[in-house]
Design a protein that fits this description.
The protein is of the alpha/beta class. The protein has a single domain (2-236), classed as Rossmann fold, CATH 3.40.50.300. Helix content is 38%, strand content 25%. The protein has ten helices and ten strands. It has helices spanning 40-47, 70-76, 93-101, 113-125, 127-131, 142-154, 172-187, 199-205, 223-228, 230-236, and strands spanning 2-11, 14-24, 29-34, 57-60, 63-64, 78-81, 160-164, 191-195, 208-213, 216-222. The strands form two sheets. The chain has a six-stranded mixed sheet with strand order 6-7-8-3-9-10, with helices on both faces. It has a four-stranded antiparallel sheet with strand order 2-1-4-5, with helices on one face. The two termini are 34 Å apart. Bound molecules: adenosine-5'-triphosphate (ATP) and magnesium ion (MG).
């Protein structure tokens, strides 16, 4: 479904991604783990088109998306939940969700029946968002804001969801809920590329995983295999 080949992403002169190859099959949960500054968020932002790789290619369902603008990539079916949630604090919960339904090419959809069904789906998944519909996004708890960020990303009806550190800073009860949500979304057919600090939980959940270090992929394999690899245990699982 998604294939990154030979990706190099820079911030000015800083080379944050130094030639990575990643693929995601339809229906998979694939996780990307690695220490702080490894380039995980940069990789996701390169897929969503916010950042551009100097070389290489990114294809989605066989189509080259590497040179497309971010809103076109959303319209193709890739939606990102950014690190730190980035909800709009001064907009209501419903307005935050509405923002997720906007793509430059589909403004008309916002008033349609289809859109109403999307709200209903999100509210069904996260009933608390329905309860808080008219509340400002900034007044939600951290866990609720994460649900809102995921809900917002779902409004564009993605086929592939990019999740950047969804469990970061959440109380254990919310962490469990977020991982359960990821599993449910996948069971409903959504393909997921997940970046997580919580390597153990991510590898347990994922079909496959990649380990990044200093802008490179240093290891890849089935989630369960990585979970039992001695070097991964030492470096990322605290064993
Ligand atoms: N806007 C920026 N300008 C310059 N350098 C940046 C910028 N954003 C990230 N970097 C650098 O790029 C590298 C990769 O950063 P990135 O945010 O992708 O790491 P990460 O793996 O997501 O880390 P974390 O786990 O801390 O979120 C780091 O060395 C970082 O300092
Ligand atoms: Mg990051």
């Amino acid at each position: 479904m998604l294939l990154l080949k030979d990706i190099y992403t820079f911030y000015g002169h800083i080379e944050a991604i130094k030639g990575i190859d990643i693929y995601v099959n339809k229906g998979e949960i694939v996780c990307l783990i690695g220490s702080n500054g490894a380039g995980k968020s940069t990789a996701l932002m390169t897929i969503s088109g916010v950042l551009k790789s100097k070389t290489g290619s990114i294809t989605f369902e066989g189509e080259e998306i590497h040179r497309m603008l971010p809103h076109r990539i959303v319209a193709k079916g890739i939606s990102q939940v950014p690190e730190g949630r980035r909800i709009f604090p001064k907009l209501t919960v419903r307005e935050n969700l509405e923002m997720g339904a906007y793509t430059k090419s589909s403004k008309l959809r916002v008033k349609s029946e289809k859109l109403k069904r999307q709200y209903d789906k999100v509210y069904e998944m996260f009933p608390v968002l329905k309860e808080r519909e008219k509340q400002m996004g900034g007044t939600l708890s951290g866990g609720e804001q994460q649900m809102l960020a995921i809900g917002r990303a779902l409004m564009s009806k993605p086929k592939l969801l990019l999740l950047d550190e969804p469990s970061l800073g959440l109380a254990p009860i919310f962490v469990g809920k977020i991982f359960k949500t990821i599993k449910e979304l996948n069971a409903k057919g959504l393909t997921i590329l997940l970046v997580e600090q919580n390597a153990r939980a991510a590898l347990k959940l994922a079909h496959r995983g990649y380990v990044m270090e200093s802008g490179r992929i240093v290891k890849e394999g089935e989630g369960k295999k990585l979970l039992h690899a001695p070097d991964i245990k030492r470096a990322y699982l605290g064993e």
